[in-house]
Amino acid sequence: MNATAGQGVLVVDGDLTLAPGVQFFGVVLAGGRVIAGKNAEITGAAQAGSGQSLLTDASIVRSSCAVSRPVPQPTSSTHSSPSSGSRASTAVPQSNCGFETR
């Protein structure tokens, strides 16, 4: 993975290689090894299938919040207008555990 950041559920058949500095928020499932470069970070959960994973100055930060909400979900909020008595529903994006991808 050479992008700067990713978010969601990542399933890899084989080895997963994260470039230096990559940030991923969510769940990572690799059939092989997880190989991560300097300052790469997985926030959530990661599971490697076989072999020795290599984390060179990289980290896996366990986060139940990032696992339960790997992708921000819209929530509905209802607003009332006192003058008209009408109610309106609006979809409001929900934050993802306070993490910000860059």
Describe the structure.
This protein is mainly β. The protein has a domain at 1-69. 5% of the residues lie in helices and 49% in strands. The protein contains 1 helix and 9 strands, in the order βββββββαββ. It has a 4-stranded parallel sheet with strand order 1-3-5-7. Strands 2-4-6 form a 3-stranded parallel sheet, with no helix packed on it. The protein has a two-stranded antiparallel sheet with strand order 8-9. Strand 8 and strand 9 (87-93) form a beta hairpin. The longest helix has 5 residues, at 64-68. The chain is globular and about 30 Å long.
In short:
5% of the residues lie in helices and 49% in strands. The chain has one helix spanning 64-68, and strands spanning 5-12, 16-18, 23-30, 34-36, 41-48, 54-55, 59-62, 74-80, 87-93.
Please bin the fraction of helical residues.
under 10%
Contiguous runs where pLDDT drops below 50 for at least 5 residues: 76-81, 86-95
The N- to C-terminal Cα distance equals 15 Å
- Write down the oligomeric state: single chain
Number of strands: 9
Count the DSSP helices.
1
Q: Please state the structural category.
A: mainly beta
| Main sheet specs | 4 strands, parallel
Strand order of the largest sheet: 1-3-5-7
How does the overall form come out from the CA principal axes? Answer: globular
Tell me the fraction of residues in β-strands, as a range.
over 45%
Order of helices and strands: EEEEEEEHEE
Indicate the radius of gyration in whole angstroms.
18 Å
What is the arithmetic mean of pLDDT?
75
